[in-house]
Amino acid sequence: MTIPSMLDQFNGSLEYIAAFEDLVPEIGDFASRLLIKNYQDFINRLYVNIDKIISELQKNPEILQHDSEDRLSISIKSSLNSMGYKASHDQKIGGHCDLIVEGRYNWIWIGEAKIYNGYQYLMKGFNQLTTRYSTGDLNQNHGGLIIYIKKLNAAEIMNKWGDTLKEEGITNISDCNIRPKLSFYSQHLHERSGLNFHVRHMAVMLGFEPKDKK
Amino acid sequence: MTTKLEIQQLLNEDWSTDPNTLEVCTKILEYLSNTDVSQVKHLSFVSIKNITEEKDLRTLIKAVNYLTGAKVPLLDTNFEFIDDKDTSYPLSQDEYHQIVTEHEFFHPETGEPVAEYKKRIFIYFTPSIWATTIRKEI
After folding, report:
1. Residue A176's closest CA among A190, A187, A165?
2. B106-130 CB burial, b ≥16 within 10 A, e <16
3. Closest approach of chain A CAs to the CA of B3, in angstroms?
4. Are the beta carbons of A154 and A207 closer than 8 angstroms?
5. d(CA A92, CA A81)
6. What does each C-alpha distance from B4 to A76, A151, B33, B34 come to in angstroms?
7. pLDDT, tens digit, 9 for 90 and up, residues A121-178
8. Shortest CA distance to B131 belongs to which of B76, B92, B74?
9. Can you tell me the ipTM of this complex?
10. Are A24 and B119 in contact (CB < 8 Å)?
C-alpha cells in the first residue's frame, strides 16, 4: 500500500490508519494512543516516538553541528507537540528542565539533555534529572538522559558512560532491545521518594567527519 | 480557563513552520467555535476533510493527530464497526484494545468472527468536553 493510492482511497478504517502510522512518522501514533491504559504504556509509546524523532535528527548531523543543547531540545519538544504530546521546554520544576512531557492522570516524564563533553558533565545531567527535577512519585518515576554526541563512535561513548554510572553506584543497568548499544536503562532508588526511578539513556548521533573533506 | 485566542496562540506556536497544518487546525477550531458542539455526535475523516477543504491527507492527519493529543485536545477519538448492512456499532476503548491486541473481532450481534475486520472498523471524532467549555469562553 503506497501513500499516493491511499490519498484517494483513505476512508478512516483501521487498515489505512495502521499503514499511515508506519509511512508518516511525524504523525506519531494517534490510533495506537488509544491503547495506552497506564503509565508504563505511556512511557513505552513515548520512547517509540522519541526514537522516531532521534532518527530524524540523525539524518542531518552536518546542519546541527553548531546547535546548542537548548536548540536541539526545543526541536525534540516541537516534534513531540506535533505528535500530540503536551511537551514543554525550560519549565520550572526544581530548576529549569530541558523537557517535560505530561500525560493523563498526572503522568510525567522528564528529560535532561546534554551535549557529550566528558563523563563528569553527563553525571551532572544525571544528577540534575534524578535529584533536582524529578519527584520520583508514582506515575512520575521515569526520566530520560538525552546525550547529543557530536563525536564519532557513539556506541563506545555510551558503553563507557554505563561503566561510569556503575562506578558511581548505579549498578542496575540493562540493555535497550530497540536501540542496542545506543540506548540503555538504569534503575536506582530515588533519594526523595525512596522508590525505584528508571532512566533511559539515549544517544543522539550527531558526529560528522566525512573523509572526502579536504 | 482557556479561550479561543489562547488556543490559537498555541496553534501558531506549534505549527509556525508548517502553515498548511496550522490552517487546517485553525479551521477546525473555527468550526468548533461557531457550532453548537453538543449537537455534533460524529465527525468522520471525510467530514473533517469537507470542513477544512484540505486535499492533502498527510496534512489532514497531522492536524487531527495533534488535536486529539494531550496539548490541545479539542477532539476525542472513537471507533465504530460498520457491518455489511451499514449498521454502526460504537466500540469502547476496552473493546478497541482487545481487537488490536487479540487480532480478531466478533460481530456484536451475531457473535460470528468478522473476516477482514480492519476494513470495517473506522475511526471517528467527537468534540471533547474541553471544546465545549472553550466555546462558552469566547
Report:
1. A187
2. ebeeeeeebeebbebbbbbbebbee
3. 18
4. yes
5. 18
6. 26, 46, 8, 11
7. 999 999 999 999 888 888 899 999 999 999 999 999 999 999 999 999 999 999 999 9
8. B74
9. 0.77
10. no
What residues of A are in contact with residue B44 (Cβ under 8 Å)? 12
Residue type (1 letter), A177: N
Q: Which three cell numbers stand for residue B22?
A: 496550522
The distance of A133 to chain B (nearest Cα, Å) reads 21
What is the sign, positive or negative, of the torsion defined by CA atoms of A192, A194, A198, A202? positive
What is the C-alpha to C-alpha distance for residues B8 and B10, in angstroms, rounded to an integer? 5
Instruction: Kindly state the cell numbers that stand for A162.
Output: 554505563
CB contact under 8 A, A11 and B61: no
Using a CB-CB distance cutoff of 8 angstroms, which residues of chain B are in contact with residue A33? 68-69, 77
Look at A14 and B117 and tell me if their CB atoms are within 8 Å.
Answer: yes
- Residues A164, A168: Cα–Cα separation, whole Å: 6
Pairing of strands A99-102, A86-88: antiparallel
